[in-house]
């Protein structure tokens, strides 16, 4: 459902970084909505999302390798502000005519950063700072028409900018707590460069989501598979706020939960949230299905298959239900979108 996407969105393009989700979270902490997309997302898809800005994440590869992950080079011609972080900065430099090489001395951990230009993304910060580095390649030459705006003892181009094109790159990681002032880089990028106003909040997202669910579902019924975990619970509560008793949740106890947890889930949803809940104790069925199975991956697949069968059998008893509500953890959304 795309209608809930706020007008001000900053996209994080994921190049295989361990911190992509943290980048998106930090942007949201600046009261700007952010979402993650794979690095090979088409230019047309990016344009259709109408982002106020784009952040290129870090990654494990070297940009000069033949199989290194890349974005569409035309991305830099859209006129949308872009901030490259670590690998993202190296990729920007590589694609736009700069030079990226293996570093004579890799930079890992706390590093002294000297700011040369304290405008734009470094606005309001001291000229000498501590940042967190994690890279084995270095930008030795910025692309044409780019200015070097920060350096370290081992990185002559620790940060660079093309103010006219609103393109920025930093080799350090502003998203981690080890760069204590890093949130200011992201805030300056969001507000000063992208022109965001910082009006987004989780509460506003909830209100918009509930409103859209209500408009889409109308008077139809909704069915939700409930595990008791954060993702399915969040989904169930949002849908229940929107359509009330039109929602039915099916909770399958497969026998592998913590002691007392099934009872807690039932009590929470029936007594606290007043949700229509179908509770199925299928523990004996699951235990029988897994009898003799020792391989963890095979167990995982069998549990998933059996859950679907139990859920489908019970869902058929409810008659016609038009909508299925599914709560999915964000990393699974990213993985599914990575094709």
How would you briefly describe this protein structure?
This protein has ten helices and 13 strands. The protein is α/β, with parallel strands linked by helices and 339 residues long.
Jot down its keywords.
single chain, 339 residues, alpha/beta, Rossmann fold, 2 domains, nine-stranded mixed sheet, four-stranded parallel sheet, 10 helices, 13 strands, 34% helix, elongated
Describe, in plain words, how this protein is organized in 3D.
- This protein is of the alpha/beta class and 339 residues long.
- It folds into two domains: 9-193, Rossmann fold, CATH 3.40.50.880; 202-337, HUPs (Rossmann fold).
- It is built from ten helices and 13 strands.
- The chain has helices at residues 20-29, 43-48, 87-95, 182-193, 202-217, 230-243, 261-272, 283-289, 296-316, 330-337, and strands spanning 9-14, 33-38, 53-56, 82-85, 99-115, 128-141, 147-151, 159-162, 167-170, 222-226, 247-253, 276-281, 323-325.
- The strands form two sheets. It has a nine-stranded mixed β-sheet with strand order 2-1-3-4-9-8-7-5-6, with helices on both faces.
- Strand 7 and strand 8 form a beta hairpin.
- Helix 5 (202-217) packs across helix 6 (230-243).
- The longest helix is centred in the C-terminal third of the chain and has 21 residues, at 296-316.
- The chain is elongated.
- The model has no long low-confidence stretch (mean pLDDT 92).
């Amino acid at each position: 459902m795309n209608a809930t996407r706020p007008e001000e969105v900053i996209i994080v393009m994921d190049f295989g970084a361990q911190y992509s989700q943290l980048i998106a979270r930090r942007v949201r902490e600046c009261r700007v909505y952010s979402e993650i997309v794979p690095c090979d997302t088409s230019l047309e898809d990016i344009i259709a999302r109408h982002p106020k800005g784009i952040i290129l994440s870090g990654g494990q590869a070297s940009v000069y390798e033949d199989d290194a992950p890349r974005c569409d080079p035309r991305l830099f011609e859209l006129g949308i502000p872009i901030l490259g972080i670590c690998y993202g900065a190296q990729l920007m430099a590589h694609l736009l005519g700069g030079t990226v090489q293996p570093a004579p001395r890799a930079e890992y951990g706390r590093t002294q950063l000297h700011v040369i230009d304290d405008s734009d993304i470094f606005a309001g910060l001291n000229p000498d700072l501590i940042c967190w580095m994690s890279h084995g390649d270095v930008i030795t030459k910025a692309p044409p028409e780019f200015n070097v705006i920060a350096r370290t003892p081992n990185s002559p181009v620790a940060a660079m900018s093309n103010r006219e094109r609103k393109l920025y790159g930093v080799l350090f990681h502003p998203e981690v707590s080890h760069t204590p002032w890093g949130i200011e880089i992201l805030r300056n990028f969001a507000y000063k460069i992208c022109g965001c106003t910082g009006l987004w909040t989780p509460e506003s997202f909830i209100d918009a989501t509930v409103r859209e669910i209500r408009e889409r579902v109308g008077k139809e019924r909704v069915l939700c598979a409930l595990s008791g975990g954060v993702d399915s619970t969040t989904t169930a509560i949002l849908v229940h706020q929107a359509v009330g008793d039109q929602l039915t949740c099916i909770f399958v106890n497969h026998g592998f939960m913590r002691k007392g947890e099934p009872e807690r889930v039932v009590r929470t949803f029936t007594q606290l949230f007043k949700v229509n809940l179908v509770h199925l104790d299928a523990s004996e069925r699951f235990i029988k299905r897994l009898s003799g199975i020792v391989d963890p991956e095979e167990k995982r697949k069998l549990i998933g298959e059996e859950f679907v069968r139990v859920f489908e059998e019970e869902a058929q008893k409810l008659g016609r239900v038009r909508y299925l509500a599914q709560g999915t953890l964000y990393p699974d959304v990213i993985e599914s979108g990575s094709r």
